[in-house]
Amino acid sequence: MRVFKLTILIISFFTLTSCDDQINLPSDDDIPETNISYNRHIQPIFNVRCATSGCHDDQSKAGGLSLTSHQNTTASYVIVYPGNPDASLLVLSIEGRSTYPMPPPGRPPLTQKQIKAIRTWVKEGAKNN
Question: How many separate domains does the chain show?
Fold first, then answer.
């Protein structure tokens, strides 16, 4: 019984510590209002919140979309329309204004600062910077 409890404790510890959404994510305070960098600000959000197994990674491509790289993210003007966030399904989805709100129910939502950063990045031309 003691070994069973210890095993459960160890599994719980690794499960809880491996699910930290803040790993490799810039804090909201580190995201500027303008001059959003895809590599410093946007891709880290996608890596932790979107491009995970079973979602928008290269293998699963939920909804036919991979968010693992700038090339994949901007492959379609329907998903990301550079300069026009209101015509970009990515922005409409994360703002909850599309038929496919993201993240889906049961997943932690993006922060308002993260949503604004993605919107600003698209508005600034969706650059690979």
Answer: 1
Hey, CA dihedral for 55, 60, 64, 70, is it positive or negative? positive
Per-residue model confidence as pLDDT tens digits over 24-75? 677 888 999 999 999 999 999 999 999 998 999 999 999 999 999 999 999 9
Whether the predicted pLDDT of 5 surpasses 70: no
Structural domain of residue 118, as residue ranges?
36-129
Q: Distance of CA 80 to CAs 17, 28, 49, 73, 84, Å?
A: 33, 22, 18, 7, 8
Count Cβ atoms below 10 Å from residue 77 Cβ, excluding itself.
Answer: 13
Does 89 map to a domain? yes
| Any domain includes 129 | yes
